[in-house]
């Protein structure tokens, strides 16, 4: 039976663990784990609650021995073990005691990729959030922090590298072909940050001199022969270290920082103290194998995990409900890092676009929750866009409110006060507000409320005064609570929704006159006491408002803009985000007014505006005043996900068709300009400067527009030719991948010969490169063609497809679920297919299965036919015996929200 944990029920752990000594004997078929733990009563507990016996977590462990105070214990006497919890009888009365356990685990057959497991020939660990209990008995919760030492004994040949957290104390040759090492981590930490790696790895080594002059050794461990592909990751690490010193005054605290790349990993990367473990797809990059986007991803994930050393490791979470304390804050920090390195305007647009495409749907769906959730069955289901991205957005509001100096002072106070502790989101806000010198109580409600606030704005101008009326609504403020009864009954729990209390947030805005001159700029702050706000300003002409500059608050703004007003903002808005936003709004309006039978033309002055940008870019060879990368973003048409959010019920196929028709029209109007610009943007040699990246981005955007003309016109395969040419001559992954997409995505029927040829070539060329191969699978699963589902089924049997690898699984199944016109096929075939695969995957990797089950997020928004089809798929999952609790949590909430 699935058990619900509530935030309100938090209690400190009755004991503290002074020391934890671990010893791992790695043998051919299993690993023997011996632990020695020194416990003492926790004053935070004993002062307030009745004494309780010590209970340790430990899932499916084979006990070899349990000792208490050096005496061997018997099951039923000294301890009781039910396969999940180990209860130590009689410990409630002990001031302190010494506990030893010896267990046997089998990492070789652990396909869940939690706890200790095998990735290729490497043994490694993943302990966040609750993996450590699969390794040994321990109070596996983040507020129990202890000093860990590790001894590892293994075969010298098979496992020449033996790594764990902290400093290497000793290395010994044991003579019999085995060797041992001892590690010590001087910093107390919770078990989720514990890590161990053993394998035959190559090493890329470097160093960093910290601001106080200490030398830190930097090691990146990889599979044999791959270290040269980790150079970019290493450079990124050094940049992140420098940036954190400069921007936050944070210096690294150990003499060694290690990163290990593994192929089998459930997530992107993990911040274990001094020993990060990374999905290899986020470490390896060469110009031939990595797109520009991959490079940026790598830099930001490396930075993210590094930044956790202070925001997460030195100061950690009191309980898992506080997850956004470390994740939201660290995402905010990695976002700022990326902005400083790749340009804030392009980064900001990307961030908000991700928020809209991923977080808003989650916040309107069955698994919506406040950034600090109130209850869960499995915390692993709450590593969400909401906790991460919305969590970061809330901190961005605080930073905006305090100003950068104030926020820095607040952060300084936070580090000063809580270093070495496990704390709460409230503690964080307290410190930020004290250090920052400004009251933040008005922003606290963001931690309690789910849903994306909708801001409805309207205005009047009476000849002398401009008045703006703002009203907020949050229809999804309440989160559905988890179900514990595993029944299939779907008694709808749709309750009447009480009106939620309002949220406070800043709305920076600017007003423009009809010539595009900025008249005024100021920030209006909603207080937590008002759902409506009126704002008046003297104005001799009717101004056009540009609202929520830089999208500083995670809300959606609705304003009845006329086309003319939007065109004005498109030309004149000085806020680079809102200029993009005006483009989005203009096109969204147009697209939502269309249907596949009746498509309308974009206005001439809109088309001419785009033409003038292209002409300028063409004349400047891509180096015009408007950076090419930004122009590429301006030319991005709102995706089906975003359009669907504005339509009830969403018609995914129709939206896709309309969007394609629109892009084709635009390309038709601008064909010559696009083509000349495409040629003008060609580069003679590969570079990774901002400008070179921007040129590639714009050029590939244009190629995609032009490729749509291919099939509308009788132009003799001209653009297939262009894309093929680009594919064949490209010396970098950005351009080859974009060309491959152009070749495969836009023809209505089966692939052209050129497309088939290029696809076959690509898989032959990259069969030895795991990450690139995943992208090859993903490209095909993401193709918006009716054949795609069948293609995916063929690809599952492809000799290079690895059925148990999460990257591979995601490259087919997550990508399918985001391929909206295909996933939401009227027959429901894709729903059924995904449900079946989720069930299969749940048997060996429930983390990945539960993640995939989030694909059904749109259930309640669908039309009746769609809901019926999706309900069948959800029921298929729920009716299966023995599904994991985490898959149950996601699926039951979806069906019965
Ligand atoms: N602490 C997480 C890793 C993690 C994720 C552990 C989920 C347990 C469950 C890590 O810091 C993280 O957030 N990784 C992200 C990438 C990051 C750049 C947002 C990931 O793995 O997706
Ligand atoms: Zn993180």
Automatic annotation (TrEMBL):
Residue span(s) of domain Aminopeptidase N-like N-terminal: 101-193
Recorded GO MF terms: alanyl aminopeptidase activity
Domain Peptidase M1 membrane alanine aminopeptidase span(s) in chain numbering: 232-443
Catalytic activity: Release of an N-terminal amino acid, Xaa-|-Yaa- from a peptide, amide or arylamide. Xaa is preferably Ala, but may be most amino acids including Pro (slow action). When a terminal hydrophobic residue is followed by a prolyl residue, the two may be released as an intact Xaa-Pro dipeptide
Names of the cofactor(s): Zn(2+)
UniProt-recorded name of the protein: Aminopeptidase N
Cited Gene3D superfamilies: 2.60.40.1840, 3.30.2010.30, Neutral Protease Domain 2 (1.10.390.10), Peptidase M1, alanyl aminopeptidase, C-terminal domain (1.25.50.10), tricorn interacting facor f3 domain (2.60.40.1730)
Statement: the UniProt record of this protein carries the keyword Protease: yes
InterPro entries: Aminopeptidase_N-like_N, Aminopeptidase_N-like_N_sf, PepN_Ig-like_sf, Peptidase_M1, Peptidase_M1_dom, Peptidase_M1_pepN, Peptidase_M1_pepN_C, Peptidase_M1_pepN_C_sf
Native source organism of the sequence: Candidatus Haliotispira prima
Family: Belongs to the peptidase M1 family.
Record domain Peptidase M1 alanyl aminopeptidase C-terminal: where: 563-896
Keyword tRNA-binding set for record: no
Gene: pepN
Broad EC category: hydrolase
Domain Peptidase M1 alanyl aminopeptidase Ig-like fold: 451-559
EC identifiers of the protein: 3.4.11.2
């Amino acid at each position: 039976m699935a058990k619900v944990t509530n935030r309100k029920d938090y209690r400190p752990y009755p004991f503290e663990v002074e020391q934890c000594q671990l010893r791992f004997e790695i043998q051919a078929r299993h690993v023997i784990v011996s632990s020695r733990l020194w416990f003492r009563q926790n004053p935070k507990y004993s002062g307030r609650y009745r004494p309780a016996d010590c209970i340790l977590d430990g899932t499916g462990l084979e006990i070899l021995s349990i000792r208490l105070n050096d005496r061997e214990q018997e099951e039923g006497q000294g301890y009781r073990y039910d396969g999940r919890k180990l209860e130590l009888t009689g410990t409630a009365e002990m001031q302190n005691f010494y506990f030893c356990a010896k267990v046997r685990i089998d990492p070789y057959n652990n396909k869940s990729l939690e706890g200790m497991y095998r990735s290729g020939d490497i043994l490694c660990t993943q302990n966040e959030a609750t993996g450590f209990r699969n390794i040994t008995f321990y109070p596996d919760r983040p507020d129990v922090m202890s000093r860990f030492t590790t001894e590892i004994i293994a075969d010298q040949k098979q496992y020449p590298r033996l790594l764990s957290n902290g400093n290497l104390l000793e290395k010994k040759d044991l003579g019999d072909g085995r060797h041992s090492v001892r590690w010590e981590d001087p910093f107390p930490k919770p078990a989720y940050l514990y890590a161990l790696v053993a394998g035959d790895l190559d090493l890329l080594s470097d160093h960093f001199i910290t601001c106080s002059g200490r030398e830190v050794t930097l090691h990146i461990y990889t599979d044999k022969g791959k270290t040269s592909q980790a150079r970019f990751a290493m450079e990124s690490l050094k940049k992140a270290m420098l940036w954190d010193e400069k921007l936050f005054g944070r210096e690294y605290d150990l003499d060694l920082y290690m990163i290990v790349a593994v192929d089998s990993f459930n997530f992107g990367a993990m911040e274990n103290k001094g020993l990060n473990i990374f999905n290899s797809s986020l470490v390896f990059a060469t110009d031939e194998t990595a797109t520009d986007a991959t490079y940026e991803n790598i830099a930001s994930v490396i930075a993210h995990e590094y930044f956790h050393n202070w925001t997460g490791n030195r100061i950690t979470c009191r309980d898992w409900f506080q997850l956004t304390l470390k994740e939201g804050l660290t995402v905010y920090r990695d976002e700022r890092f990326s902005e400083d390195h790749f340009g804030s305007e392009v980064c900001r647009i990307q961030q908000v676009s991700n928020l809209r495409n991923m977080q808003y749907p989650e916040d309107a769906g069955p698994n919506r929750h406040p950034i600090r959730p109130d209850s869960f069955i499995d915390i692993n289901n709450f590593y969400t866009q909401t906790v991460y991205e919305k969590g970061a957005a809330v901190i961005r509001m605080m930073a905006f409110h305090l100003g950068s100096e104030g926020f820095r002072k607040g952060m300084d106070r936070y580090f000063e006060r809580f270093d070495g502790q496990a704390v709460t989101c409230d503690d964080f806000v307290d410190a930020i507000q004290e250090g920052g010198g400004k009251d933040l109580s008005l922003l606290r409600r963001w931690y309690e409320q789910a849903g994306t606030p909708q801001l409805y704005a309207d205005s009047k101008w009476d000849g002398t005064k401009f008045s703006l009326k703002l009203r907020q609504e949050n229809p999804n403020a309440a989160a559905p609570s988890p179900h514990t009864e595993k029944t299939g009954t779907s008694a709808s729990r749709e309750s009447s929704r009480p009106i939620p209390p309002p949220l406070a947030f800043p709305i920076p805005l600017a007003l423009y006159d009809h010539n595009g001159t900025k008249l005024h700029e100021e920030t209006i702050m909603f207080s937590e006491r008002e759902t409506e706000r009126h704002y008046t300003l003297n104005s001799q002409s009717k101004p056009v408002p540009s609202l929520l500059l830089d999208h500083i608050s995670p809300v959606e703004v609705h304003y009845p803009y006329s086309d003319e007003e939007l065109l004005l903002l498109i030309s004149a808005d000085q806020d680079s985000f809102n200029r993009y936003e005006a483009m989005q709004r203009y096109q969204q309006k147009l697209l939502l007014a269309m249907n596949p039978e009746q498509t309308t033309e974009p206005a001439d002055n809109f088309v001419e505006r785009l033409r003038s940008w292209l002409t300028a870019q063409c004349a400047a060879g891509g180096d015009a005043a408007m950076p090419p990368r930004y122009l590429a973003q301006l030319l991005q048409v709102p995706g089906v996900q975003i359009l669907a959010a504005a339509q009830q019920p969403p018609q995914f196929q129709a939206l896709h068709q309309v969007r394609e028709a629109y892009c084709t029209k635009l390309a038709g109007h601008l064909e010559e300009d696009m083509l000349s610009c495409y040629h003008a943007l060609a580069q003679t040699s590969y570079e990774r400067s901002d400008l070179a990246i921007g040129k590639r981005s714009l050029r590939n955007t244009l190629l995609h527009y032009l490729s749509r003309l291919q099939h509308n016109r009788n132009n003799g395969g001209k653009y297939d030719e262009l894309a093929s040419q680009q594919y064949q001559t490209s010396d970098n992954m950005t351009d080859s991948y974009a060309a491959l997409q152009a070749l495969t995505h836009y023809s209505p029927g089966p692939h052209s010969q050129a497309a088939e040829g290029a696809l076959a070539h690509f898989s032959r060329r990259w069969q030895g490169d795991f990450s690139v191969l995943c992208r090859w699978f993903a490209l095909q699963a993401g193709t918006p063609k009716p054949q795609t589902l069948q293609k995916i089924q063929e690809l599952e049997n492809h000799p290079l497809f690895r059925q148990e690898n999460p990257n591979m699984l995601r490259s087919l199944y997550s990508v399918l679920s985001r391929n909206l016109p295909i996933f939401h096929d009227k027959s429901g075939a894709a729903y059924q297919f995904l449900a079946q695969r989720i069930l299969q995957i749940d048997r060996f990797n429930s983390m990945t299965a539960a993640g995939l089950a989030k694909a059904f997020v749109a259930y309640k928004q669908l039309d009746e036919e769609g809901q019926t089809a999706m309900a069948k798929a959800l029921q298929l999952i729920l009716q299966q015996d023995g599904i994991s609790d985490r898959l149950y949590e996601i699926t039951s909430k979806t069906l019965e929200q």
